[in-house]
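Support request from a user on the community tier.

User writes: "When I paste my structure tokens into the form, the page sometimes reloads and wipes my input. The last time it worked, I copied everything first. Here is what I submitted, just in case something in the input itself triggers the reload:"
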């Protein structure tokens, strides 16, 4: 599979282009509907000369205006991996600064879309806005590109039992679900398990003293973390020197570890039936189910007993999910087949 070219310099863009335009945080089910019309498989017959291109912004416009770092469902490396899996050929990251923010809708169309990107086809969501004070909308694009513009309507899905109203597929709803520990909902809206990818770093090694060694994950600072607590997970160990990768079930704790007087939020994963050195290796963790909130225990023995219970709870959730993973999510973030 070819790599995605990540481009910050407009002189390096492969032109002319077919573009999907938006922020695409999380690359969820709705985002993939926007991206689908500009993929090489969609372009091959009528527009073989166009480069499949996702156009986004860096930083996120809300981050620029608020001057506060925004947590992301998919930081850049994860987003690029997701675009690669879809078949996108290049990702153009427009620097969202004061100059770009001042462009009127007409100037954005002329300077960015026509002059710089040489856009022939466009795909956007129904609520996409652009230009100074978000004055531009899909009608402005329609006036120029006509039937070469795809506008994807609002995407919803039914979730849960009974006559529950459809849930809008959006990054904000995924964030809300994660904050509430509703992992099933977040995963459904994403179309895949929510994923944490980080390097294993040295911890205090308290887990091994009670028989539950953990891998401490160092995550990108902008990664959006779910609700503090314990989760059933499936992890992929990415060995740097080996082509094959190991996929293991386990439990993960996110929080301050109050029982041992922790003072910093940490992400720790205990892998079932795993032996080996994980330090400095990359661990990719799929969240399967929220088990319980984090809480303080009176003793390490009480904590050990609870972890044993958590592991059993995780095993109760995980076996049927493994089959579901094979059916619904045949590959993880890095394209590795998930075993049955």
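"...and here is what came back when it finally went through:"
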């Amino acid at each position: 599979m070819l790599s995605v070219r990540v481009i910050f310099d407009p002189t390096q863009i492969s032109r002319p282009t077919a573009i999907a335009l938006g922020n695409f945080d999380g690359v969820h089910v709705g985002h993939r509907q926007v991206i689908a019309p500009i993929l090489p498989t969609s372009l091959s017959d009528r527009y073989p000369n166009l480069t499949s291109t996702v156009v986004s912004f860096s930083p996120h416009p809300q981050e620029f205006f608020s001057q506060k770092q925004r947590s992301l469902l998919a930081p850049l490396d994860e987003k690029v991996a997701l675009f690669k899996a879809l078949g996108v050929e290049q990702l153009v990251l427009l620097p969202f600064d004061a100059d770009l923010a001042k462009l009127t809708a007409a100037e954005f169309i002329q300077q960015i879309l026509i002059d710089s990107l040489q856009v022939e086809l466009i795909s956007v969501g129904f609520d996409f806005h652009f230009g100074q004070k978000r004055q531009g909308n899909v009608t402005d694009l329609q006036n120029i590109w006509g039937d070469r513009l795809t506008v994807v309507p609002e995407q919803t899905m039914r979730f849960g039992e009974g006559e529950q109203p459809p849930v809008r597929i959006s990054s904000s709803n995924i964030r809300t679900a994660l904050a509430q520990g509703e992992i099933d909902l977040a995963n459904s809206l994403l179309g895949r398990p929510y994923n944490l990818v980080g390097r294993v770093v040295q911890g205090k090694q308290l887990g091994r003293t009670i028989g539950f060694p953990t891998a401490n994950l160092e995550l990108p600072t902008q990664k959006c973390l779910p609700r503090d607590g314990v989760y059933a997970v499936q992890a992929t160990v990415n060995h740097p020197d080996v082509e094959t990768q190991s996929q293991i079930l386990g439990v993960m704790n996110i929080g301050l570890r109050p029982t041992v007087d922790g003072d910093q939020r940490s992400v720790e994963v205990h892998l079932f039936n795993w032996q080996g050195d994980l330090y400095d290796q990359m661990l990719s963790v799929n969240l399967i189910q929220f088990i319980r909130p984090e809480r303080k225990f009176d003793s390490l023995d009480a904590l050990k007993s609870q972890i044993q219970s958590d592991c059993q709870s995780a095993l109760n959730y995980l076996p049927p999910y493994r089959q579901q993973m094979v059916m619904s999510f045949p590959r993880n973030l890095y394209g590795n087949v998930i075993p049955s």
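Agent notes: The reload is a front-end session timeout and is unrelated to the input. The CA atoms of residues 256 and 264 lie 6 Å apart. The chain has ten helices and 14 strands. Escalated to web team.
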